[in-house]
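Help needed: design a sequence for this.
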């Protein structure tokens, strides 16, 4: 984080900790749990999993004590996120499945969809054997997001489904999901969703050997990511541009974009190490 963000974090953390002490004095358990929960969230953003989990578990104990199911589910959801970020996938799935069970019980449809989506992401990260199960969860999440009119989550679900369909050798079917994600992105004025959907469509076209069409999309995506200085996106689109030109037999352009991708990749690595 930058200096300004550091100061904001320190101030917010102090406020939550002060609030926690006040709520302890007046013995307000619900507010104590909420304070601990938000302290945990802040440490999770810093990837300080140990302290984040310590606060989450304290909050969870209180939520169970006062029998607040909604708060319990929210905490379990974040514990699932924490475990997933640490690549503790089975532990993450356990937390998310507990979360899903509660959201179903209290009939919170949107949170059910978001939890199914996160379960899908974890299953995808595990290995190829879990791709079909991941696909099933993403499709369930999509159905809920469409019904509950959650455009941003609908777009993300369609993109994830498209990505998995490519990984399981169904690029033509993936194309349909990306196209619908593009349409929804435009309708909801979600520019990042639109760019990600175009990139996905480019990947599907690449797999279908429609390299010239794919190149147009990858160039469009690259130009956007370059404009906002998103290095990870630049590297990905440049890599596909290089591969596409190579497939067309244009070795000169293939080498040009490969070199650019390598340069951007080094910058990204340097940035991540700082």
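Sure. Designed sequence:
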């Amino acid at each position: 984080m930058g200096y300004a963000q550091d100061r904001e974090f320190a101030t917010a953390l102090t406020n939550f900790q002060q609030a926690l002490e006040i709520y302890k004095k007046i013995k307000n358990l619900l507010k104590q749990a909420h304070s601990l929960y938000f302290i945990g969230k802040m440490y999770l953003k810093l990837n300080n999993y140990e302290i984040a989990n310590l606060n989450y578990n304290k909050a969870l104990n209180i939520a169970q004590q006062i029998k607040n199911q909604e708060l319990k589910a929210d905490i379990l959801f974040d514990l699932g996120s924490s475990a997933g970020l640490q690549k503790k996938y089975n532990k993450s799935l356990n937390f998310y499945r507990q979360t899903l069970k509660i959201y179903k019980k209290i009939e919170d449809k949107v949170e059910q969809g978001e939890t199914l989506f996160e379960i899908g992401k974890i299953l995808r990260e595990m290995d190829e054997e879990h791709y079909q199960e991941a696909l099933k969860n993403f499709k369930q999440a999509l159905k809920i997001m469409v019904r509950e009119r959650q455009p941003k989550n609908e777009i993300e679900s369609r993109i994830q489904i498209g990505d998995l369909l490519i990984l399981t050798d169904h690029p033509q079917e993936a194309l349909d999901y990306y196209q619908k994600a593009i349409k929804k992105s435009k309708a909801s004025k979600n520019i990042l969703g639109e760019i990600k959907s175009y990139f996905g469509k480019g990947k599907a076209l690449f797999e279908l050997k429609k390299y010239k069409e794919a190149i147009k999309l990858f160039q469009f995506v690259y130009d956007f990511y370059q404009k906002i200085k998103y290095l990870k996106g630049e590297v990905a689109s440049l890599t596909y541009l290089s591969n596409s030109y190579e497939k067309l037999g244009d070795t000169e352009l293939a080498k040009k974009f490969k070199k650019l991708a390598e340069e951007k990749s080094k910058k990204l690595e340097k940035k991540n190490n700082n």
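The radius of gyration is 22 Å.
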